[in-house]
Amino acid sequence: MTASVNGEPREVAAGTTVTALVVELGLPAGGRGVAVAIDGEVVPRAEWGTREVDEGARVEVLTAMQGG
Amino acid sequence: MTASVNGEPREVAAGTTVTALVVELGLPAGGRGVAVAIDGEVVPRAEWGTREVDEGARVEVLTAMQGG
Amino acid sequence: MTASVNGEPREVAAGTTVTALVVELGLPAGGRGVAVAIDGEVVPRAEWGTREVDEGARVEVLTAMQGG
Amino acid sequence: MTASVNGEPREVAAGTTVTALVVELGLPAGGRGVAVAIDGEVVPRAEWGTREVDEGARVEVLTAMQGG
Amino acid sequence: MLELAGRQLRSRLILGTGGFPSLELLREAIEASGTELVTVALRRIDPGMRGSLVDVLDAAGVELLPNTAGCFTARDAVMTARLAREAFETDLIKLEVIGDERTLLPDAPELLVAAEELVDDGFTVLPYTNDDPVLARRLEDVGCAAVMPAGSPIGSGIGIANPYNVALIVEHARVPVVLDAGIGTASDAALAMELGCDAVLCASAISRARDPVRMARAIRAAVEAGRAALEAGRIPRRRYAEASSPMHGLPELSGGPVE
Amino acid sequence: MLELAGRQLRSRLILGTGGFPSLELLREAIEASGTELVTVALRRIDPGMRGSLVDVLDAAGVELLPNTAGCFTARDAVMTARLAREAFETDLIKLEVIGDERTLLPDAPELLVAAEELVDDGFTVLPYTNDDPVLARRLEDVGCAAVMPAGSPIGSGIGIANPYNVALIVEHARVPVVLDAGIGTASDAALAMELGCDAVLCASAISRARDPVRMARAIRAAVEAGRAALEAGRIPRRRYAEASSPMHGLPELSGGPVE
Amino acid sequence: MLELAGRQLRSRLILGTGGFPSLELLREAIEASGTELVTVALRRIDPGMRGSLVDVLDAAGVELLPNTAGCFTARDAVMTARLAREAFETDLIKLEVIGDERTLLPDAPELLVAAEELVDDGFTVLPYTNDDPVLARRLEDVGCAAVMPAGSPIGSGIGIANPYNVALIVEHARVPVVLDAGIGTASDAALAMELGCDAVLCASAISRARDPVRMARAIRAAVEAGRAALEAGRIPRRRYAEASSPMHGLPELSGGPVE
Amino acid sequence: MLELAGRQLRSRLILGTGGFPSLELLREAIEASGTELVTVALRRIDPGMRGSLVDVLDAAGVELLPNTAGCFTARDAVMTARLAREAFETDLIKLEVIGDERTLLPDAPELLVAAEELVDDGFTVLPYTNDDPVLARRLEDVGCAAVMPAGSPIGSGIGIANPYNVALIVEHARVPVVLDAGIGTASDAALAMELGCDAVLCASAISRARDPVRMARAIRAAVEAGRAALEAGRIPRRRYAEASSPMHGLPELSGGPVE
Predict the structure, then answer these.
(1) Which residue in G12, G94, G220, G227 is the catalytic one?
(2) What is the pTM of this model?
(3) What's the per-residue H, E or C state across chain H?
(4) What's the complex ipTM?
């Protein structure tokens, strides 16, 4: 199954949750400093454990950068 | 019959047209430099001859002033 | 005998030294912070004890003031 | 006979007057716009006809330039 | 020649008519200024008014540029523009939507809304704006025929408070830029033109000067001077001096014959 | 009319002749500038020189103001002034005693010495000075016919670096004040006049502009503009706006008939 | 003590984290600056990134102020703010809605729309705005917790291009005013505080200085200096001198005994 | 560490003692300022004077820098310097030779004469000069231990009227440059240091502030800030913005799933 993660196509197993994806990407499980949007909508952290990434979903995984 | 002309109550005869009112106010009949609004709407010059001032109408008669 | 001290005429006893005059004016004997000129010439402190104030001498007795 | 003219050595015939030198240099005889100094002194125009250039004299022949 | 709002104008000075002590002084100042375009406001008729402003302006042969001064909302400004169109039979409008009585600076969002609506309604819109380069671009994007940034608040005489911003506006604009508001004296007008503005709009600096007619002449000359200077291509600013007299060919003046 | 050094001058612009690419451009710029007084330097004759500067200037009907540019001591400046008097049959001298090659700013003590000596020798001395109000006063006190403060270093185009000092000089002077050096463009010249200077002396800003003749016209107009603005009496600077359209007589435009 | 967005802050310097060459230098600069509040951006995770910015900032004990840098529409800015709220568990947001890539100045109408929406959504909104006093007032009116005007474009180092406008904003504001963007060096920061700003936000001036840690110290001292100077009540500007040494009591030093 | 006149000074702020309402406030301001060097004037003894200035200054552990304020000729200044040497047993002298009561600016030729004479007489001369780079160089050439240019007239609070000239002085000087006179508030002092001055001398800005002790603290911090900023190497001024947040890594936030 293919989703778009940060603009790049990425194979994800069916049933992959946001939490799983975040961990896969090497980010801290706790998620401090990380935000996720799917298809232009924010995914609240409370839903990461249950929200699955669908085929073709456009996922943005964002984190803190120096700036401003 | 009473209308409001430039914020002041004014007696106007029933059937008074905009043109008549303008002349009554001492302005040139041609109307160059004069504009009229009734109840918050512009009265195009072409309608001055036919448009009558109603009871309670709020008429604004404006002209050029130094400014800007 | 009369001398001018800081622009004002002042009676001084004959034989009055600069040191004596300075003390008379209520200044510290040591003279720290005080300078004296007579007739447009600086009187070095070493000479205060011996230098006498002559009749008609123009004496300036100066001290530190806030400034600059 | 050699003189220095504007910093360069120049052969001049004995008895050469300032006027003669100026003409030799291709300047208008009248001298409008030209000034001459010899040995650090101005030579007034009235003396050009009689003042001779001596051996070793340092002659400056100056004229108007754009400037200022 | 300035091409502004479809007109060809010889004069790059637009005159505001506010503040002149008399119509006669206004008339003389118009003549002295050489302007071809003057602003007017629209107000309730004043029974005590003597002389007709429009007659004076028509006789002077200048075109009218009505304004929406005194409007604090897009709605009022649009309405005023429509009344002005009726009164003066012109689609030209100097659009003002004021945001603050103290500074009389424009209200950016309301201004943009009004500009868009008036452009859609067929007006040729000349908006009085602040010196924000982004807003100037937005006004241009919605179809304004020029942008008219304030140098500083109306009537303040402060001049061009932020020449840097005015230069940014000019650099980016594809419509004429008219420096409007804040001019205090001739050098301010010259500077506006040197920054690349296409024209200057000036009211109080002239009308409230001690001698308005002479000041009209002064500002006119300054606008021409600034424009000519821009076209002539000024020298760069240098940190150090550059001699204007030759540093060679200097005589040796100190002293006697060669040893 | 400017009364300067016993002359009555219609033009308040003195032109420096340095830096023009050709005598022809100089000639045209003189005409465009309207100047009646132009500076010249005195240098060793240059065998390669084509055309006579003096002939061009005489034909233009302008008076010559020789300078002592390039002199670093009072002695050299005095000698140069005397040579200039012989060359040009004039007692006018623009006195320059330079103190520093980098800035070409004057050497105050040497300048004062030279000024005094030349005044005693019958010259009409126009000293190029810095913007120090005290030195300006001293130069006046020794008999100079004018003071000519630098706005900024010669040829720098920086304009008037310290308008405050120039205003102090003007305020105190009993002889004409000529802003000399530093002008970069038209608005600088207008500002000089608005500060109360009696005239402007300008060389590089014109001669080294991309189009010298057009810049001559620009600076001329700016000098006239600044002078007229001064005479016209500018409006004060205000912290807040002052409306140029009436704030009364505004219509009530929002909505329907009276309830 | 600065009360900002419900916080009590001892430091009036907000530090932008952009532009530091390393996290270690950022850490040291935070310490040197004394700041208690630092901005962060939100971007796609960068696989090559070493070290955790958030860890560094948490260890430094500073609060995070996420920004919406890079957003050109109200929509994107609002969305970014919501993501930031999730990421950093804060309702604080530095709202940026950029209008122009060249100047990075804000887009006034979009900014106002976004501000209103975020306030309604429960955010504590600190908008990066231009120096327009009217827009500042509008932002305050929709409920922003502060206004943060640009002194000049981000990273330009130009300082406060229009101190007059900043003063107008301060004069009228009922929320804290934070000078954001344009600071180039210490004196700019001091001036901001003297104009009455409540705090200064500074990134590039520190992070891109040759020695960022020393510059952090410099700007910190400047902010404190400017604030203290404001509170101390500066002397007025005078046209003329006022002696700081007594002009009486001067001795008579010239010459001999009384005749 | 500032090396000035053979001293090693930790503080780069020299305090003028004129204008303090009381010796107690002076004492507190000295402490708050951190200064190690303070000026004093020499005047006829005042019988009504209470408290000893010298005692206060000695107790504060600061060194005295006597001045020649009020002198209008080289002769008077030299004489006053000699009296000061007797009174305070120091060869340090702040040399002032005033040329004008209105501006209290120095008289350049007299100043140079006095400086030379005092140097020859063994004094360590710190001359108060104007902002003329040429005069500064002459003073250095005759052996002054520093040059102390006025930013603007004494007590005027105008700040640094011509930063360009101060920068030229700094650039050329081989002795310390002390910005003396004209400082109005903290940012002026910071700017002086950023221009490269080695120290700031400040009297009225502190002594006549509403709260002199707090202003002493402010100016002290500003001097330190300006110096640190100079050493830290400021960012260049840029015409356009430079983003302080990354412009890459921006998310794609608009809309639904990939088509």
Answers:
(1) G94
(2) 0.93
(3) CEEECCEEECCCEEEECCCCCCHHHHHHHHHHHCCCEEEEEEEECCCCCCCCHHHHHHHHCCEEEEECCCCCCHHHHHHHHHHHHHHHCCCEEEECCECCCCCCCECHHHHHHHHHHHHHCCCEEEEEECCCHHHHHHHHHCCCCCEEECCCCCCCCCCCCCHHHHHHHHHHCCCCEEEECCCCCHHHHHHHHHCCCCEEEECHHHHCCCCHHHHHHHHHHHHHHHHHHHHHCCCCCCCCCCCCCCCCCCCCCCCCCCC
(4) 0.92
